[in-house]
């Protein structure tokens, strides 16, 4: 029998507005990871992170990536046309693509 293939699934879900209605409101997302990789002690993990923490992560990856291209993050738009829900969903999908890559 062959060696089972290592699989890692990551999902960005459940966006929530924190401090709604105040000047310092922001959206955070639930990041859910499931893996059968031996490199991970925990096979599932779940954390909440906001956009600026993805920006930090990308910066760290760029610093250590050498010539390997680091995926783009979805844009940070102060002037979004459309509904806030649409913007949050578009960003959620973009963050998931970033983590998958």
From TrEMBL:
Location within or outside the cell: Cytoplasm; Endomembrane system; Endosome
Lipid bilayer topology: Peripheral membrane protein
GO terms (BP aspect): intracellular protein transport; vesicle organization
Pfam entry (one): PX
Domain of life of the organism encoding this protein: Eukaryota
Molecular function GO labels: phosphatidylinositol phosphate binding
Keyword list, A-Z: Cytoplasm, Endosome, Lipid-binding, Membrane, Protein transport, Transport
Domain PX: 7-101
GO cellular component, as recorded: endosome
Family to which the UniProt record says this protein belongs: Belongs to the sorting nexin family.
Stated name of the protein: SNX11 protein
Gene this chain is encoded by: Snx11
């Amino acid at each position: 029998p062959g060696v089972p293939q290592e699989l890692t699934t990551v999902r960005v879900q459940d966006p929530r507005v924190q401090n709604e209605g105040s000047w310092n409101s922001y959206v955070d997302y639930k990041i859910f990871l499931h893996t059968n990789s031996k490199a991970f002690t925990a096979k599932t993990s779940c954390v909440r992170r906001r956009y600026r923490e993805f920006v930090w992560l990308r910066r760290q990856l760029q610093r250590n990536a050498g010539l390997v291209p680091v995926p783009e993050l979805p844009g940070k738009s102060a002037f979004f046309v459309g509904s806030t829900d649409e913007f949050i969903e578009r960003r959620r999908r973009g963050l998931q693509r970033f983590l998958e890559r």
